[in-house]
From TrEMBL:
Keyword Plastid attributed: no
Stated role: Plays a role in the regulation of phosphate uptake.
Keywords: Cytoplasm, Phosphate transport, Transport
Domain PhoU per the UniProt entry, residue ranges: 16-102, 119-204
Family label: Belongs to the PhoU family.
Assembly information from the UniProt record: Homodimer.
InterPro entries: PhoU (IPR028366), PhoU-like_sf (IPR038078), PhoU_dom (IPR026022)
Compartment annotation: Cytoplasm
This protein's name: Phosphate-specific transport system accessory protein PhoU
Amino acid sequence: MREYFDLELKALNDKLIEMGALVEGAIKNTITIITNGEYDKLETSRMIEEKINKMEREIQNYCLNLLLLQSPVAGDLRTVSAALKMITDLERIGDQAIDIAEMSTYLKDCENIYSMTHLSEMAERSSNMVTTAIDAFVKKDLKLAKTVATMDDAIDDLFNKVKQEVIDIINANKELDQQAIDVLLIAKYFEKIGDHAENIGEWVVFSITGKTV
């Protein structure tokens, strides 16, 4: 019986890894649209989001079946419960990635007005946070899970830099206020992605220790 349940948990880990990879792909596709102006990839972003939503439902049903049919206890129960919480944050990250991709269309021809360097770095760091959190869950690595929270500090710092740059742009040219606000909103979405990734890390800590952060 134990051996069978271990196989079920491994299958759950594999599904979470797959969903995490889709989320990473969504973020990377979004930043390609922003930095390279490849707006034809917007449809790809929508397709990835649909896959993420589908995986959320699939993992949710899988976890509920484990809870109802296998009656896990102690550590196993925490693992399944944490997975249910994690997929909610992953799905929201997917939503925010497509929101950013769609908003980026308003920034066409703005490359010479605003540098996308900090947005690119925010995207890369948020993607790394998701990868680290999922890796920590699969490996049951408490130390790795706790590093996710510290990674979010860098994203917050970058957001503050973007905010100051937006203020400078508006002060220099009032006619660019709408573009500047769009940039700020995109940066805010990336900050929220970091927050959701931090949530995932906290649920990993809970799955291992039984304690909430």
